[in-house]
Structure formats: structure tokens, C-alpha cells
Amino acid sequence: SAEMSHTPRALALLAALAFGLLGTEARAAWRAAGDVRTVTRQADGVVLTLTSGARVAVTFRDIETVRVRLAPSGAFERDLSYAVESKDRKTVAAKVAETRDEIRISSLDGTTVVVKRRPFLVSVLDPQGLTVVEADPAKGTVFDPDTGAVETSLKRAEWETYYGLGEKAGATFSRDTQQFVMWNTDTYGYPRGLDPIYQSIGFYIALRHMKQVLGDVLPVRAAMPVRPRSYVYGLFLDNTSRTYFDMGKTDPARVTFGAASGELNYYVFTGGRERSPKNILRDYTDLTGRTPLPPLWALGNQQSRWSYTPEAKVREVARQFRETRTPLDVLYLDIDYMDGYRVFTWDKTRFPDPAKLIGDLRKDGIRTVLIIDPGVKYDENYYVYKEGKAGGHFVKAADGTEFRASVWPGVCAFPDFTDPKAREWFGSYYKQHLDEGVAGFWNDMNE
Q: How far apart are CA 414 and CA 396, in angstroms?
């Protein structure tokens, strides 16, 4: 139920389902990816068919980035991703060499993907021949032909730690020996360790510490430990269904990740010859897009809480900042500025002249940011709802009816942001606030 969905017990159950922790029965129908049956070469890599019926593409996105794409059904879906920035790209030339046991695909800088034929296993080597990621033969790629779930595992090196995966309330900043679900959930007031919460980003950076000694150079009796060298790599799982990562919790020697449906579509960022975090982030953001440089004021001190209302309170807060000579560049207005939490409206009792308030703050060097929620109140007399319904811009339930759920305004409909027409329609309403002098927007409740 909606009431139950936020409880730690319910979320723990969801996590257990994702990780297959409810017994072996749920895994009985899972099928191993099998052996490589056929190999088709293409300019940037290879396409494989497997004995399980699955289809795989192993390609180079650039000379330091490898993409592995496995379709359990044997047919690739349309190659569309909301995470990957669309722009024209030149095909990365790849060199392919085959033996009876393996297929080796190499880029111009020497990064190499090794695909074992029996069974299908994928490993990536850097230009020096060091392992970046290595498939775990004890627990390879598997999928459930009934549900479409898919999963793979990598060997976890000793002294390997992980960072990233979005907003997580884990026990430590490093993600190693923990497991996480990627499924956004509105969980205000969450305790430490609760997962999932608000934000899901299926990207992590791994830091691997390599033990080294001088025994190969000095006599054995003189051998001594030296400062270990660290290597990094990045991995991004691009799948919008419920995905999960087990970073060595179930088995300290293994990293496992998978998805409830769709393709197993992941990128490995090698970091090039330097194996540096800088290169990893450069290549990841080259794939997904980089944040534009914000205006200078957005880097200043910003004041926000739930909630500054009415207008007199907003003015009082600004006055106190100035009187105490505390820097203030931005004030945020939370949901109470709206008329009954109806987005793109003002409560004219609390804020009788929004443009004048915003203008007065701006004269004092303070910008105003408004919260915007995508839950549009179900109200036939509310202009935003009426226009959204008439345009067919709201999310539909499985039976084709308008999907509704309760958030701040009560029962709401929700714009279908996967539809460009819905995005254009919803985005057009921001103009009225820009005309009032609003400097920025706090897009909330997007979970």
C-alpha cells in the first residue's frame, strides 16, 4: 500500500526481492548466458550470439571506454538512453583477434576486452595489460527468461573500495561490503542504512590498492614492502528498471549487479594509461553530459528551509542577514507560497504582490528561488490540470487511465516527462515566474 511503501520493513522487503534473498525458488528458472555461438565483427567491436539465445554487443565507446550490452531475449531494444547525452560520434576503430578459446577486441590505445567463449565471460585490460575488471567464472552472467531479470558478477580484488551510486545512507562513505537498490523513493526522515532513498545513479568509481614488493629487484633478504600503487576504474549500469549492486557484502570476493528487466547495459571506464580518477570522471561525463557553469550568485550563500511564509517573514529573514552582515545571495520559498500547493500559483493572502517582493529582494542583492513540484492537483477548475488533461500530458496507468496518487495538494496527476510534448507543456509555465523576477527553481518531488 502507499502507506506501507515508506516503512523500513517494506523497503527491506523490496531490497530482499532485488537481491534474490528470499530463497532459491525465485532463482530456479534463471539461465546461464552460456557459450559464444557466433561472432560478427563490426568497426567498433563484435556482436555475439550465445547458446542461451541471448545476444551481446561488446564495443568501444571511445578508446578508454568499453560498452557491454546483453539482451536476454536475443533482440536488442531501441538504443535509447535518457542518461547518455545525444551527440554525433565517430566510430571508434577496434581490432579483433580470435582464437579457439577467446576473442580479443582492442582499441588504438591498447585497452583490450577479452571475451571467453566457453562459457561467455568478459574481462577488460588496460594498455599495460593489467586487469581493470574480470568476470567471475564462479557466478557469471545469468538471466530469467520469464521475468527478463538479468545479472552479472565481477571478481573483487583485495583492498578494493567503491565510491558513488548516488544518494545513499550507507554505514560508511565507501560503498564496499554493502549492497544497494537503485529505485527512487520518497523517504523523508530516513535512518542511517535505509535503502533505497531519494537518488539513484548507477555509477561508481573503484579504487584498487595493488600490493608490491621489491623482491624482484633486490635480494630476497633485502626485500621490503613499498608504498602500494593504486588503480581506479569506473562502471556505469544504464538501466531504468529496479537495479541493484552488491559491492562484496554477500561474498567479499565478488561484485554483483543486475536489473529487474531490460538489457544488461554497462560501461567500463578504464582511466587510460594513467588509471586516474580525473580520466574516469572525464569519460563518464563525456558519456552522460557535463553540468553547465552556474551563475556566480548560485555559488554564494543560500538560505532555505520549510518554509518562509508569509511575505513579512521573508522580508524579516533578509533584513536579519543584512543587519548581522551575514552573506546572503539566495532565499528559497518552499511549498507554502502556493495556493493550496497548486504548482505555478501564488497564495495571494500570504504573498499579495510576488513581483514586488522579488524585486525588493533583488535590489538588496538577494535572488529568489521557488520550489516547483510535478504533482498537479486533480482539480477540474485548476488551469494547469485542465490543460494537462486536454493535451494528454499526464502519466497513464497500465490500463490507459490517468495515473493518480496523493502528494502535497492531495490527489494529483503527473506529467509524463518521457514525452517531449509534455516536457514542453510543463516547461512553458516557468515563464510566468521568470517574468516576476524569479532567478531559479528548486525542482522537488521528482522521485
A: 9
